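Follow-up to my post from last week.
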Amino acid sequence: MTRTFWIDTDTASDDAVALVMALRTPGVDVAGISMVSGNMPLEQGTRNALYTAELCGSDVPIYRGGSRPLLRKPAHAQWFHGEDGMGNQNYPAPKRAAESTHAVDAFLQATHDHPGLTLVTLGPLTNIARALERDGGLVQRVSRCVVMGGNPCCEGNVTPAAEYNIWCDPEAAKIVFGSGMKIEMVGWQLSVGEANLSEADISHVRGLDTALAHFAIDCNAHVMVANKTQTGDVGISLPDPTAMAVALDPGIAVKVSDHRVQIACADELTRGMTVVDRLNVAGDDRNADTWRVVGDAPLCRVVWALDIPKWKRLLYDALG
Ligand SMILES: [Ca+2]
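User reply:
Got it. Predicted complex:
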């Protein structure tokens, strides 16, 4: 049976690999891709997504969405992904252009055309928040919302408190996490350590010797350097592809549990922090002033561990 996906992305190099995985997996129909400002400015991200789809031989429609967060200033991540977001590989301009329809309109229409679709978010949640503001009924038409974002009960990757996608547009994340949509949170910490593509894994991918395999490594050349500087890990960190792996095969998430999650928006120190009620104490009297106000806040599925060999096999299958 074919599953329908919608992908929201701020396409830089790890998004590109995640797009390849979705576009190359049999039985998955990507109804559309919505672009959002994030790792890359909107136009560069759009160009990167169009180029990636072209490499996959896909004519999936790609739509421009939010060019800046709901309230905050845009803040990109060239320092991690390279000036073009694609490891400064100077890829040629894509042959086709984005659609003229706005991403939010296109996404809302897709949820009517394909009720029960799987939404995968790989960037800040600006577009999804705007869609929810327009039509709260959206919650019922999305069966899974797999979010690459957050840092449950651990450090962030852009500030000590927060992961980039949530930090970039925390007000949007607050709307989405509070919406009641069936969220599965794949935090950035799941893509470190053993989940990195090690030098041996990179050699394995090179050995597949397909255009997509070389593309996946080449466009992440800058990430490999930045990753070593940031975490000390030797290899390529791929947060968006790990989230896509969970979307494609939920069995890759081997440890999950459901919790209330709040997004910190009130001060700069904790901006974008995903505060997870891991011990389920939010309803206790001592938390009345802070969590009681969100007493019926929907539960969010938090992923705590991945089957790492399985995630890498899924990646290799898409690139081979
Ligand atoms: Ca991304």
